[in-house]
Amino acid sequence: MAQAFSPPGSWAGGDRYEAYVGRWSRPVARRFVAWLAVPAGARWLDVGCGTGALSATVLAAAEPSAVLGVDPSPDFVAHAAAHVTDPRASFREGSAQALPVDDAAFGAVVSGLVLNFVPDPVAALAEMRRVARPEGVVAGYVWDYAEGMQLMRHFWDAAADLDPAVRGLDEGLRFPLCRPEPLRELFAGAGLADVEVEEIVVPTVFADFDDYWTPFLGGTGPAPAYAAHLPEADRVALREHLRSRLPVEPDGSIHLTARAWAVRGRWSSHAAS
Which residues form the Methyltransferase type domain (predicted)? Predict the structure, then answer.
C-alpha cells in the first residue's frame, strides 16, 4: 500500500538517473544557460550537480574559467567526475545548506532540478547568495511536476487510478515550490534583486513504450522507487494501465513534453541593505 512507502531521501545510480530524467534535463540546461547570459570567464558553482548534466552544459556553452559541482551523493559525484573530464571542471561532496566553498567566490551560482528536494530551500538560497560575488547571478530550475512534466504526470495519475492513496506521494502535490510565484518569493526573500521566472518546455520523445517504462524500474527518484517497491502483479497492472493511457503514434513512439520553471536573481548588497 502507498501508505507504507516513503520516497527515498537519497539518490544513487548515475546511469539509472540518466535514463530516467537526466537525458531530458540536458536540453533544459541548454536553454537555461543561454537565458542566463553570464559573461565568459566567470567561475560557476553547480549546486546539487547530480550526474553533471548542467555542469557539462556550462562548459560547452558558457566559456567559464572553472566549474565546481557539489552534490551530497557520492555516487553522483563519482559519476560526474568520470563523465565530465574537462580540466576546468571539478566535483566534490557537499550539502546545498552548507556549501563547502568560500564567500563571494563565484560569478554564477546555479542549481538544476534540486531546490525542491532540499530540506530547507531558504537555507540553500542563503548559502547560494553567500558564495556569489557582488552582482553575480544566482539561478535554478525545477520541473513543473503538477502539470507540465508529462512523463511523471502520466505515471502518478495512472498509479492513483489504481490506488488513490498514491496521491500523497505525487511530486505535483509534494513540491508546491515548483511553481512560478513560490520560486519568485523564495529568490526575492533571499535578498536577490531583479528576480525573473521563465518557462522552459522541451520535447521528450520515447522510441516506444519500453523506452518510456524501463527507466521507472531503476529505483532512482521518487516515481521509480515507488514502482520498484510494488509487488510484481501490481507493477504489471500499473505498466498496462500506463500503456493504455499514453498517446502512442502509429510507429509506436510516444511524444510528450517536459516543462521546467527557471528562476534567476542578482546578488546586490545594495538591494539587500
Answer: 45-138
Count of alpha carbons within 13 angstroms of residue 218, beta-carbon side: 21
Type of residue numbered 192: L
CA distances from 89 to 30, 101, 195, 243 (A): 17, 15, 28, 41
Distance CA 155, CA 230 (A): 14
In words, the CATH class of domain 2-267 is: alpha beta
This model's pTM is above 0.85: yes
CA distance 171 to 106: 31
Helix (H, G, I), strand (E, B) or coil at 202: strand
* Mode of pairing for the β-strands spanning 132-143 and 254-267: antiparallel
Mind listing the pLDDT tens digit for each residue in 36-46?
999 999 999 99
Q: Which tens digits make up the pLDDT trace of 161-205?
A: 999 999 888 988 899 999 999 999 999 999 999 999 999 999 999
Nearest one of 173, 143, 156 to 259, comparing CA atoms: 143
Work out the number of other CB atoms within 10 angstroms of the CB of residue 249.
Answer: 11
Q: Please, what is the end-to-end C-alpha distance for the chain in angstroms?
A: 51
Every domain of the chain and the residues it spans: 2-267
Amino acid at 194: D
